[in-house]
Design a protein that fits this description.
This protein is an alpha/beta fold. The chain has one domain. Helices cover 31% and strands 16% of the residues. The protein has 6 helices and 7 strands, in the order βαβββαβαβαααβ. Strands 4-5-1-6-7 form a 5-stranded mixed sheet, with helices on both faces. A hairpin with a 2-residue loop joins strand 2 and strand 3. The longest helix has 21 residues.
Length: 194
């Protein structure tokens, strides 16, 4: 059974948005956070769908400990599992554990330079949603990708996770959901902390 929330994180360019969309196609996910203003398309992909939390973005990850309604306000409808997406959750892992102990955390890992390159190819600072201005410039973006990836790996190690490829079988085994996964990338790994 799915929890109320899955705090979902990966660095910019980690292909985490495609993984999020595959997950949200499963039964039981609440996708009422999707609005035209929260959609970004690039190449042949629907790059971003739904609310993104992050520094300088529509929803900042600031009030986790004091107000669960702050997180949930991004969704128009109650119920279902909310996939709460943010590149900045690595800065908040301890607070998430403390305040949302019944919810899960999902990690997406892709190496720094590959992520950085794909983020630029997907639009970089021209991406219309979410807003990446907080990252300031390409040099700082690469620094933040590296810093967040290190935090993701350390948190995974702390929780003794098993890193695996994102496949339909992985989703079925870990979440009990049947979804279609169009492609598995050899440089993208996922882990789930329940």
């Amino acid at each position: 059974m799915l929890p109320n929330r899955i705090f979902f994180t990966g660095v910019p360019g980690s292909r985490w948005s495609g993984i999020a969309q595959a997950l949200e196609s499963g039964a039981g996910f609440n996708t009422s956070d999707r609005l035209p203003s929260r959609t970004y398309t690039h190449h042949a992909y629907t790059g971003h769908l739904g609310a993104y939390f992050g520094w300088g973005m529509e929803f900042e990850p600031l009030i986790l400990w004091s107000d669960h309604n702050y997180i949930d306000q991004a969704w128009a409808n109650p119920g279902g599992c909310r996939l709460v997406k943010s590149h900045n959750w690595p800065d908040k892992f301890d607070e998430i554990e403390k305040c949302y102990s019944d919810d899960w955390i999902m990690l997406v890992y892709r190496p720094d330079l590959t992520s950085y390159s794909w983020w630029h190819e997907a639009g970089g600072f021209q991406i219309q949603y979410p807003d990446y201005k907080w990252y300031k410039d390409s040099t700082n973006m690469l620094y933040e990708i590296s810093r967040s990836n290190q935090q993701i790996l350390e948190y995974g190690c702390k929780n003794n996770v098993t890193w695996e490829y994102f496949t339909a079988n992985w989703v079925l085994t870990n979440m009990g959901q049947t979804v279609t996964v169009d492609r598995t990338y050899p440089d993208v790994l996922v882990a789930l902390i329940k």
